[in-house]
Amino acid sequence: MKLVIHDLPAAEWEKLQAEYAGDRIVADQGTIRPCVGCFRCWNKTPGECAVRDGYENMGALIHRADEVVVISRYTYGGFSAFVKNVFDRSLGYVLPQFEVVGGETHHQKRYAEDKPFTFLFYGHDLSAEEKESARRYVKAVCANIRGYVKDVRFSEREEQALPEAPQAAVRPSGRTVLLIGSMRARSGNSAKLARKLGERLRGGYEIVPLPRYLARPAELYSALESAETLVLCVPLYVDGLPAQVIRFLEGLRQYPRRGIRRVYVLANMGLYESSQLVNLFSAVKQWCGKTGTEYCGGLGVSAGELLGALTGVTPFRLGPTRRVAEGMDALADAIRRGSRTEDIYAEPFGFPRSLYIGIANANWNRTARKNGVRPEELYRRLEPSDRPAEARKNAYPNMDLTEAMRARHSVRSYTGKPIGGETLETLEKLIEEYNRESGLHIQLVRGEPMAFGGAMAHYGKFSGVRNYFALVGKKSRRLDEACGYYGEKLVLAAQALGLNTCWVGLTFRKVPDVFRVDAGERLALVIAVGYGTAQGAPRRSKTVADVSCAENAPEWFTKGVEAALLAPTAINQQKFFFTLRGDKVSAGTGLGPFSRVDLGIAKYHFELGSGKDRTVWL
Questions:
Q1: What distance, in Å, lies between the first and last C-alpha atoms of the chain?
Q2: Which CATH superfamily is domain 175-367 in?
Q3: What pLDDT does 399 receive?
Q4: What residues does each domain of the chain span?
Q5: How many beta carbons lie within 10 A of that of residue 207, not counting itself?
């Protein structure tokens, strides 16, 4: 069996799918989330990603395949954002421990095998240089993922060329923005190094965390309109830029008011040889070439966990961080002057590779013990029978989110069974992630019977409710819609975990001190969650024609509207409306109780059903 990872549009995939009948297909369902750099796939749940979105077992899928076939749009020397995201989430295929292979530091194999990879790139008018860049990149990917390149092929697809947005005039401002591309936007090495660089810039800069804007990229592009200099502060993920940074650059490329004139890079990685950052620098150079932006050089820092830790405890110019300090001085000077510098590769000074590998490998054992994992369990190899039957049946997201969307109905009566174990851990992680993405303050309240114990709850016919999501956020015009969107993400995740839910706007009582509502915040509504006494029942629904407008609607649009019609709405009002405008969609709603919440819910359903992401909206 082959494992096929692809980013093709549905119409293009239909032409090829017969060739891969019987193979395992990994495609973009609109649910994949970025690698958060938590390393739990190495030291908490070895071999398996802790982010539960349907892509957490990529390492095991690669192992089980006879061959891996990767079909990707050529994107700045490597993979598209989706395909790169899949590889970012495949770290569990290898071990955290290092060894030297072919003169370079790489991760040790988890599985005793040499996996063949075939890469099929498509794009518009690819040059010989671009094709060579792709070959160099996949060779590095396979070296680090411990497979080998079986074949690399290219095909021409003119319709896949990205449209270049005409650029409106933007007055230069001199602003310098240090954009942190790591999901660990405060505690990661990218943030630590960005702060060190900022100290050398002596003012006139601002640090912006990319994760804050993942759910609303247009706000970030707008905020960058007046920025003249952009410094990408990023970690190396699978020999290139992290997927979320690629998505950011793709969106920025199509934004009509780019004020950015110069781009610098401050990159870091965990491997010892900083020369392995060459493909990351190359990707940024290619983006600059496509957008007419000046690439002005970068600093690459290796042995990131070691040097990142030392930045705060030793004099920066002394000891192992000496070369980093020197490189950072040169980079800061170039940024202040608005001039170019050669790419600088900085490794630990006076700290031999063998010592670094020995310390790093021993550290994994220590972190495993802290997580309650025995060191020998770090070497776990996942097989189909590794997980108990009950876990395979109920663990999110073994029920596909589309299936969860169709299976989920409002439930008002619950058993007393508590939410715990992996189910609770998954919900808490999702809440943390969604709060980080959206700026909301969602909280899970457990074992609290009073909110649904009064007359209002009796009127709403609730019984046995002990747990609920409190949807809290800063007071703003977008609060209700954001609560609807992210609340429904939690609802469908809960359904896929074997739980039941019900949106509740009025028929509950606010109990003091069981959740926080900070100054400037508001509780929008709550969602009852738990193990239902039944699974609920569907309600009558409007038709696609009732809630949408489109001439010669493409299949994806119709599927999106059909999915939106499955969305729960207040008193089943379904007042949302979708209009197709070119390849974009405008969404609106009529007046009614909680209609903005309903719109957020419906938009998330539309994205799931259509296979589009949030860039589909006008």
A1: 41
A2: Flavodoxin domain (3.40.50.360)
A3: 56
A4: 2-160, 175-367, 390-530, 548-616
A5: 17
Give the other-Cβ count within 10 Å of 601's Cβ: 27
Q: Which fold has domain 2-160?
A: Rossmann fold (3.40.50)
Query: With a cut of 50, which residues of the chain have pLDDT below it?
Result: 159-161, 384-398
Q: What is the pTM of this model?
A: 0.65
Instruction: Give the span between the Cα atoms of 42 and 389, in whole angstroms.
Output: 23
Is the domain 548-616 a CATH 3.40.630.10 member? Answer: no
- Give residue-wise pLDDT tens across range 37-63: 999 999 999 999 988 888 888 999 999
Single-letter amino acid, residue 398: N
How does strand 115-123 pair with strand 67-73? parallel
pLDDT computed for residue 266 by the predictor = 97
Q: What are phi and psi of 586, to 5 degrees?
A: -100, 140
How far is it, in rounded angstroms, from Cα 24 to Cα 15?
A: 17
So what's the pLDDT on residue 287?
97
H or E, element range at 577: strand 576-581
Please report, for residues 469, 559, 561, 583, the alpha-carbon distance to residue 554 in angstroms, rounded to integers and kept in the order given: 36, 9, 11, 9
Which one-letter amino acid corresponds to residue 136? R
Helices 243-253, 81-88: inter-axial angle, 10-degree rounding: 170
